[in-house]
Amino acid sequence: LDSKLWHACAGGMHSQGIVDFGRRPRIPSYLLCRVFSIDYMADEETDEVFARMKLVPSRADELDYYRENVGLQDSNGSDLSEKPPSFAKTLTQSDANNGGGFSVPRYCAETIFPRLDYSADPPAQTVLAKDVHGEVWKFRHIYRGTPRRHLLTTGWSSFVNQKKLVAGDSIVFLRTERGELCTPSGWNTPSAICLPPPPGGFSLFSRE
Amino acid sequence: LDSKLWHACAGGMHSQGIVDFGRRPRIPSYLLCRVFSIDYMADEETDEVFARMKLVPSRADELDYYRENVGLQDSNGSDLSEKPPSFAKTLTQSDANNGGGFSVPRYCAETIFPRLDYSADPPAQTVLAKDVHGEVWKFRHIYRGTPRRHLLTTGWSSFVNQKKLVAGDSIVFLRTERGELCTPSGWNTPSAICLPPPPGGFSLFSRE
DNA sequence: TTGTCGGCCGATCGCCGACAA
DNA sequence: TTGTCGGCGATCGGCCGACAA
Question: Can you give the residue ranges of the TF-B3 domain (chains A, B) (predicted)?
């Protein structure tokens, strides 16, 4: 699982988890460990994201060494300091309603989505996005209405139904360097969508 | 789980199962056992029926004793020799098609279903049936068309969808002494339906 | 007797701009 | 800027008899 997508999804809830280590009295309350590796995972059914970390007990005097010489990396070697542009929105009743579309905030459409050709009438394009499992979803992105606004129409309700999204759930749009995805979610956990960069050859109406 | 319903469902496939006991060489190939009890079970998801039997090793000379003095019973005390009228049908493409109904073979409608009042035009009634889990399903049973035939219409497609039935699956109709049920099935395993006896007060149009 | 088909009608889906918060 | 609504047209579900195997 892509580490940037994982962070975009987990960002809003990584402080909610409580881990119970069983309170075994023989183990000291605190152990200095080196984080040996991190793997980013997503539940197959709920799309809930979580991480698997391998911890190696360290001696106290090793701390400074690792701090200075070892950058924290995931098992794919990606540097965790990169933060690709992303945008999160909590689904409204209208977004989640059956038969409705998705109101795309203007900022999200202009900074995350592929560039739209506004010379068409109405301006519209097909947007491809992959979810945390690598599954590709197709949406119609249209700019219409008075006043004008960005919407996802065709493909959206199928997405909502299959991901069992309801009002209050979140969706995260993420834009990476090379074409991407969207991830839906279960139950008040964020859904992430990564979109291809503007020059993507995917979009039916996208130019430049 | 009712033992008669179980037998109606399992009847077509109880010779298909293969049990691997691991071929442990220390256990004799054959052991004379007394069947201590039988419990009839159904998988919650697939409706596949199976049985749990408690076997007690016996000495050879006990065989005749049990044969003569102990009737085989399930854990509810029901005698296994009773066989209530039942009817099985393999679903056709038309039965399983979305938007279609279920063609009820005449023999099944006349011997298993509650008696229909043929004086109405068209003759129709509501039929209630419980599945292996005790869930009640409601069907509209109508006698129409030229030539006349028995059909299940309203309620049928919902049943097919929720039970994920496809052409080739089986359904078993079973009639017991005191009101009953239907059981759907997964994947080429029989679905059973028990129906209330003719005088059932459930049916909208049923008389006598 | 009953499996499949086309017709047909009503319900739902889903796209639309209007409007207001 | 964007959430909600009523409208309305297209699609689909589902009931029907015709017909033939």
Answer: 87-189
> Is the CB atom of residue B65 positioned under 7 angstroms from any atom of strand C?
no
Question: Measured between alpha carbons, how far is B156 from B105 in angstroms, rounded to an integer?
Answer: 15
In chain A, what is the greatest distance between 2 CA atoms, to the nearest angstrom? Answer: 71
State pTM to two decimals: 0.62
Counting every residue, how long is chain A?
A: 208
- Give chain B's count of helices (H) and strands (E): 5, 9
Q: List the structure tokens of A73.
A: 């990396």
Residue nearest C15, CA–C1′ metric = A153
Q: Which amino acid makes up residue B183? A: T
Spanning CA of B124 to C1' of D16, the rounded length in angstroms is 14
- Nearest nt by C1' to B100 Cα: D14
Contacting residues 55-94/A vs strand D (CB within 7 A) = 92-94
B17 CB burial (10 A radius; 0-12, 13-18, 19+): exposed
